[in-house]
Amino acid sequence: MELPRRARGDELLRTNELLGLRQRLRNIARRHDLTSVIAYAFDHRTRMLPFIHADMRMSPAGVRAIGAAMLDCGFNKTRIVLQQWNRHFRPSQMRLDGRIPDIFMVSSMQIHSAQCEALIRDACRIDPAHRPLIIAGGPKTIYEPWDVFSADPLDPWGADVAVTGEEYVLLSLLEILLAIRANDESLRMTFIRARNSGILDNVPGLVYARTNREGMAEELVDTGIQRLLGDLDELPHSVLGYQLLEPPSRKATLASQALPASRIRKYSPIGSLVLTLGCKFSCPYCPIPAYNQRQYRVKSGQRIAAEMAQLGREYGLHYFFGADDNFFNDEQRTLDILETLAHTEIDGGPLRKRIRWGTEVTVHDTLQLREHLPLARQAGIRALWIGVEDMTATLIKKGQSVNKTTEAFHLLQKYGINPMPMMMHHDTQPLITRGPIPYGLLNQARLLRKAGAISLQVLMITPATGSKLYADAFTSGLAYESVAGKRVEPYMIDANYVVASKHKQPWKKQFNIMAAYLYFYNPLRFLLALVRPKSKLYLADALTQLFGMWGLTQTIRWTLGWALRLMRGNIRTKTAVPASPIPMCNVDGAAADHALPGTPLAGCGQLNAKPSPVAAPADGSAQNRLTAQ
Ligand code: B12
Ligand code: SF4
């Protein structure tokens, strides 16, 4: 089920709305000496192909963006902790500026939910009188905000609030809280007063709990779908987030200083950058168009050039990855960015000589832009990840075909850009086929390699939260509950595991993925890549082979056991959509925008429904009252 769309014409923030909010907060921030920690949840069991290097060596843009927004608004006592680098970090032991932080934020993808929950649980061990305000956000929370609240009275834990949106939502929440915060009051206490008064209901993009006397979430209030930032030039500069990274360590606590600028390149040599967001296609298994409210959002060429140049100057970063959904989506806007990057001069030389970058595009748009591909290369692009999915377009039609894909790959290779195909394996695709139509997975891997691919991504089609096909995958008996006694856990929903299939022998699908990778990444091909490389970039092909072989060992290590379980059978499928067990409603007591089918609504909106005016903070007893919330 996709996220609902806001009323037409009301999807985006007004021009300069984020700029205004940032300015207002800067004026308020001086009066509040806030400390905050932002953690990126990461489950190390997900370390395998196709992203075995990037997962550790590219610090995620989401937490950096949130950190940048905090710093930009004047909250400079902020630290970003990546579980990739700090797997023993314990929020219950964190101290920043010698004290327990005022705010603890967690960002998570769906596959890292177990770690997200563990982090929140650990933060909840802090005595309620000193507990930070706990805010959850990121791709998991955007689609399943209820999952950061406990439904079990015998096992209470949970975030105070889930943010289902971006920077603007978080900053709006902070603006409201700081406007009513009393001098000595903890921010969590301020939040509870604000929540109970109903003033948060005017901020679309939040989900908070109405609690009983024991502090248990009895119902969740969803303030609705966020308004999106249309002009991405209004975002705080990406250089800021890097200043806040916690140095890698094995400790549970935080270091006294953030990672120095001189060491950033060592740990995060690839800089992921938001350039554009959104996509014009409508693939039924993809949540991206609906999340973006069918809008296409962009940064200007000048802004992108300025960010890349400054990241190079300050941290020595030269390799970038655009966090785009489909960078070639809009011809005019793409050309604006490419022209600017190709012609910008910095420090007396062309920027394009100092930067190398890649991003995601489609076959269709690559061919549309065929005459501009030399410009793309001139602008520093050296690799493009292309959603080929299935070359024969049996799974999905988005303008690709065997000939078109081959043509697009040849063109890219000709102009010195590495085509990096992303394939989707599905129930009806065999491993290998004979005959004129290259329907089999290996047939396609072979064609793609011949056409110039130096890397390969093969994922099993898996229900994605927020996509059109999501709910149906559960009600139709496609999604597995458990296999041979082992439950499907969140870390396994990364499309590397076969966890949703109607195939009679699903283990074959699991082995097919391994076989395709083994076909593509192997010692023989490594040797060939040394003497007859596919890439014009020196050693790029051979090095990718080495990474691929290493990644494949990890893929086999993690998924072989699952394949064997699939062979044993005893597959139990899910019967219902994984919806919130806690009743959810919108601010008027009607069905919530983020609720999935099956979410209880009965009685929702009755509890504490009558907002109390913003109660004045109880002076001395304010902290004590917290224990009862
Ligand atoms: C770049 C990228 C990657 C990179 C890098 C990830 C990284 N470490 O940076 C790589 C290639 C490694 C990658 C891998 C995968 N990815 Co990926 N990736 C992306 C992509 C294209 C951009 C991410 C990004 O940087 N966005 C820009 C930032 C600014 O946006 P953001 O992270 O969403 O953060 C914003 C908000 O969410 C919010 N926010 C975020 N955190 C928090 C926290 C708080 C407290 C608050 C208030 C707000 C907040 O504010 C932020 C600023 O606007 C997104 C799609 C997209 N356009 O977002 C998919 C995406 C994140 N990936 C996705 C997936 C599924 C994967 C893989 C599982 C794919 C696979 N099968 O292998 C793997 C996982 C690997 C792993 N072990 O973690 C999904 C996640 C779906 C979900 N619901 O969790 C996404 C959303 C794509 C999709 N299908 O919609 N990915
Ligand atoms: S082309 Fe890619 S980003 Fe666009 S809808 Fe399809 S899968 Fe999603």
Give keywords.
binds iron/sulfur cluster; alpha/beta; single chain; disordered C terminus; globular; six-stranded parallel beta sheet; binds cobalamin; 629 residues; 21 strands; TIM Barrel
Percent of residues in helices comes to 25-40%
Gap between N and C termini: 34 Å
Bulk shape: globular
Radius of gyration over all CA atoms, rounded: 25 Å
The structure class reads: alpha/beta
Bound molecules: cobalamin, iron/sulfur cluster
- Stretches where pLDDT is under 50 for at least 5 consecutive residues are 619-629
- Individual helix count: 21
Beta strands, count: 21
- Mean pLDDT across the residues is 94
Please give the order of strands in the largest beta sheet: 2-1-3-4-5-6-7-21
Q: Strand fraction band?
A: 5-15%
Please describe the biggest sheet, giving its number of strands, its sense, and whether it closes into a barrel.
Answer: 8 strands, mixed
Folded structure, characterized:
Helix 1 runs parallel beside helix 6 and helix 11 (301-315) packs across helix 12. Strand 16, helix 16 and strand 17 form a beta-alpha-beta unit. The relative contact order is 0.12. Among the domains are: 17-229 and 580-626, no CATH class; 269-421 and 434-453, Alpha-Beta Barrel (TIM Barrel), CATH 3.20.20. The chain has 629 residues and is of the alpha/beta class. The strands form five sheets. It has an eight-stranded mixed sheet, sandwiched between helices. The model is unreliable at 619-629 (pLDDT under 50). It is 34% helix and 15% strand. It has 21 helices and 21 strands. Residues 46, 50-51, 54-55, 58, 60-63, 65-66, 105, 107, 109-111, 135, 137-140, 142-143, 163, 166-167, 170, 272, 274, 277, 287-288, 323, 325, 459, 464-465, 494-495 line the site of cobalamin.
